[in-house]
Every structure is written in structure tokens, then in C-alpha cells.
Amino acid sequence: MAGGSPSALRPCEFTLLKNAHCCAATNERALRVCELTVRASRCIRNGWHERTLQAYMEKQFTLTAGKKDDGTRLDMFVAESLKELSRSKAKRLVDEGLITVNAAQTKAHHEVRAGDVVNITIPPPEEPSVAPEEIPLSVIYEDEKIVVIDKQPGMVVHPAPGNLSHTLANALLGRYRRLSTGTHPLRPGIVHRLDKDTSGCLVVAKDDVTHRKLADLFAGRSVLKEYRALVAGDVPNDDGEIITLIDRSRRDRKKMAVTADKGREAVTRYEVVERYGHATHVSAFPKTGRTHQIRVHMAHIGHPILGDRQYGHGKTERKLGLEVPRQMLHAHRISFDHPETGENIEFEAPLPDDFLDVISRLKKLGNK
Fold it and tell me: Is 69 an annotated catalytic residue?
């Protein structure tokens, strides 16, 4: 920011600076707003979601005290007016000079009067960060731009409430230190995701330019993916294509569901690999990338993935006395044009031991 001029900024940076009223600012507080604004514009260019961006921006409010507020303590007045602030937090902001009355700093016990103008500045929270952790990774391929990981089942891809450590993102930073910014501060290098209990190929970007190129390939459906799944029942056709709309379930917001009139189009082609009587080994080729797409689609046609406790019914497992440790879904193969060279490259993650073990037991059970 130092030494820069509005003409040297990208359009989105200049617009944000203009809206923040800090183009000509010289005081430390205004320069902080400038810094946050430019940081926001960079986040926008890196593809951060709007809600994610808003969560890490400074907030400002202006309140005018009414007759009913006359004589109320300042910290109490603010806490009652802004539901996102507790009284203790309001007091802290007053003490830090971030809450003023008629443009003047004061004390938390100050009594407001009708007509007083109270300005409140809520600073952004510290940007969340991912701590590097020394966790072993199965690397299929890497160069200066990308890494292809064979993600192990049971590993969460990035930190989230309830899983703040021991994730793939922690492991990646423990190994590479520097990765792309990604679309969220807790997702360094993560271009696409796999569910916790889905194993297999996952592509990681080492820098922001590579990340954007890969993201465009995924968005343009130029990435070919083959999954392997063990599903309940004997799938009647050797191949087929499932085309539906998928949206958030109205009954359970943690689940996705096939819908008749709303949602986004989802397309999955499948081929039978092997039949075991009460179960079938299939290859699934998702043409779109909806959340839980293959799991939802296979359940929709009456053949849920074995071990899927969210979308499956468990009837086949119970009937066969079959213990399945997790959903039997594996990202087996991925193919795309290299973001730097343009060369088409393909990678394969072998079927993991737990997947092969379930196949072995299914073969022994036969037509039981």
C-alpha cells in the first residue's frame, strides 16, 4: 500500500478503497482500513467466497440514542443495540477507543443522552491459520506446481469445527510449508475435496496461479475422474447414467438429496466391474461435482454404497453379517491437462487394503 496510488491498483482494489473513504487517509486508523481493504480485494481475486470474506472484514456501526436510552451506561446501550456484542466486549471496545460518543472517546460507564451519536468499530478477528503438522502422506506425484495425494480414509481434508488439526491441510503444510492461498484461509492448496471416509486421488496447488487454472479446469468439467465403489445389491445393468437435480435435503441440512424442482444438475455415469450376488463393484464417472454426488446417486437408484452410514440403509451388511469400516468409495483415477505445460496427465491410486478386504469377504460370501 505504501507509495501506491489509486491508478496503480486493480479496479476492484480502487473501488473498495473508495468505498472505505481512505484513499487520502493519513492517520493510522484509516491506513488500517486501507490495509484491510486491499487484503479483501486480493482475497476476492483468489476466489474467497463472499460470506468467508465478510467474516474477516472490519465492521462499523452508527447508533443514535433515543429518549428511552437517556441515562443508560454506554457499554449497556451498545450491547442492547447490537446483538453480536456482549456487554463485556462492548466495554473492551470502549477501552480500546473503538467506540466513541459524538466523535469523542469516553469511558464504558459514561451515560448516553438522547441524541448522542455513538460510532462503533468492530475489528476483524485474526485470520485463522492452519498449523503445520508432521503427518505422513502418500504422494503419487509432485512437481513445482502441483501435488497429487493418495488420501487415506478417515482423514479430513481441511480444518473445520470439530476437526481443527490432524487434517490433510495440516499435513500438507508440514511437508511443503508454502501452498496456494485457496478459497478459504483454512484450505491452503486445496482445489477440490474428498469426504473424510473417501480415499484416493486429490490434487493440490502449490501457488495461486496454478490454483486458479486448476479450479477453472474443474469448473469447466475438463477433469476426468473415476471412482470405485462397492454398492448394495445386484445392479441390473452393466452400465448406465444417472441425471438428476441435487440440493440440500429439506429434512436434514447435513445431507444432500435428489430433488424434483430445484437444485443443480448432477450427472454420474457408471459401469459394473464385478458382481458378488448381494453387492456390486462399480466404476463411477461423475461429470459434475456436486457434494456427495456419487453417494446420493447410488442411493437414489436403490444401490447405496456399502458402509455409508449417511445415505445407506445397512440392510445388505446386516443380512451378510458383513462389517464395513467406512463408506466403500475410492477416487481411483484422475486425468487433466497440466496447468503449466498443458500436457494431459493421469494418475491412479490403487485400491486400499480395507476396500480389497471387503471385496475378498464378499467373494467368500458369494450368493449367501
Answer: no
